[in-house]
Amino acid sequence: MDRAIGTSGRIAFASAMRNLLADVYPEHDHAELVRRVFDVLDLPLEGDGAEPCEENLRKWDQRDAFLITYGDSISRDGHHGLESLGDFYRTWLKDWLTGIHILPFHPFTSDDGFSVSDFSSLRPELGTWDDVKALSKDATVMADLVANHISASHVWFQQFLAGEKPGVDYIKTASPDDDLSDVVRPRSHPLLSKVTTSDGEKHVWCTFSYDQVDLDYGNPDVFFEILKIVLEYLKHGVRVVRLDAIGFIWKVAGTSSINLDQTHKIIKALRLATTAVHPDVLFITETNLPLLENLSYFGNQDEAHLIYNFSLPPVIIHALLSGRSDCIRKCIMSMPPAPAGCTFFNFTASHDGIGLRPAENLIPDADIDAMTDHARRMGGQVSYRSLKGGGQKAYELNVTLFSMLAENFAGDRTYGLERFVMSQAIAMSLEGVPAIYVQSIFATENDQTGYEETGIPRRLNRKIWQLEEAEERLSEEGIAKRAFDQLRALMSIRMGQPAFHPNATQYTLNLGPELLGVWRQSHLNDQSIFCVFNLTDQVQDLDLSKINLIMTEGWTDLLSQQVIEDFNGILPLAPYQIVWISNIDGRNRIDSRLLQRYRDAMPV
């Protein structure tokens, strides 16, 4: 426990917790529920202590960026996965990526970790809690809490089958006669799985697969079990908790069973309870949903600290494949500034595929169809979800980002590297904390072997790298090294710019269909950066009179170091060129070695 709550804080905390739990569990003794929260947190019901002050803690700034990886994405014979990951991170990434999101590291039975069979330990091949603690000394560690379901091999489900406590009361069941027609889910198999228990035949709710049985949060004991898991993570050095599939946790027949009010209140209760003893904890919600539904997880600045910017990957890819900025500009303009104390988690690729639901109402259906056709043409697969009333709809593109961008809709392969680097640069430039998936670090192409051996489409994007092979790929001349050097230089340059603070002001520019432009302005208004991207394979002219270059200040492109002298002139942009035009002299802020690294990695 980091600290105890003082008298006034304890009273306010108890009152807020009581209100939340009373709304979620109206039939239960609310005073008893609050007492149990104090017990789990090991907080005294009486007495004085220091007041937690979450709002005064530094949450993030422009220096922060994350690596997204499995614990064994970097492997080495004779070493634990997390040990090898740590060695790779310290050698290659520590100076430009400050955090590591480790995807599920517990023992599991399916779905590459997302079917957890034991929350109390790590998979032996990955290491132990001590390895997580060791990583936390060098990086901000994000851990994945699979909150919606457990493996069918988990002891709780085995207890459910046997009619034993506590698991008998932890599993969500329903009747085939219930109205489940409105239930929203990302899979096409039937929702309910028939099982035989000591009490007869029952039907368990399985949102994702029959090996992933859903927990019943209608039982407050489940809430307390999840709270204990969060506290265990924090005890071992985790600072950011990713709540996987959290939007599905509360189910009610006759409803969509997603994003229900009780779901939001449970997240708020988890945050309220945890920050009482760990004020520096951050929660991020994984809700792969259309924009407005996703934004709701900020709550009233009392729910998620960060939410995934799920709309970003499909609109970035669409912009680079089509050479048009209309859809991505619409997306950026639709994103309101994050509330105080909150921000977005900007990513372009992840362990999952490229989600298409967040592109709804942003990308026309015809263009979505073109993207699915393009993914197949580039060696990828397409996953589908069932629709109400029958039929299916493309849900996810299973393909690596590098393979997806290797050519555009017109069939051009000349600028695949430039499109790929630009996809990352766009994410770095927008409001929020950027994150790079481990396969993007290596500019990985589709892992056809992994897919063919397993038949799992997502394996195309989940290659496991041997450490020696990974280091050779980044050391030897080639496209992967050039991509890596550019990303490292871009992120390193970004770290020194206050206008790239995750909460710095952002304006969307209208520079025509071929160019994407955003204007970032620091909190103190002492730096502006105009980020402009040529989305095409042709030279495009940037009319400088269309951006707000104040004439009393000097302006420099941070990347090329070109000084802008004619504020009403034309700046020609090469195919897929990136410019970060700043009013602070970049030469005084950027290590010349970074600039040289960036230039050397660019195509001749």
From TrEMBL:
SMART domains in alphabetical order: Aamy
Gene Ontology molecular functions: glycosyltransferase activity
PANTHER family: ALPHA-AMYLASE FAMILY MEMBER, GLUCOSYLGLYCERATE PHOSPHORYLASE
Keyword annotations: Glycosyltransferase, Transferase
Keyword Phosphoprotein found: no
Binding site for substrate: 111, 149, 242-244, 351-352, 458
Domain (Glycosyl hydrolase family 13 catalytic): residue spans on this chain: 64-494
Pfam families, A to Z: Alpha-amylase (PF00128)
InterPro entries assigned: GGa_phosphorylase (IPR033746), GH (IPR017853), GH13_cat_dom (IPR006047), Glyco_hydro_b (IPR013780), O16G_dom_2 (IPR045857), Sucrose_GGa_phosphorylase-rel (IPR016377)
Protein name listed in UniProt: Sugar phosphorylase
GO biological process terms held by the UniProt record: carbohydrate metabolic process
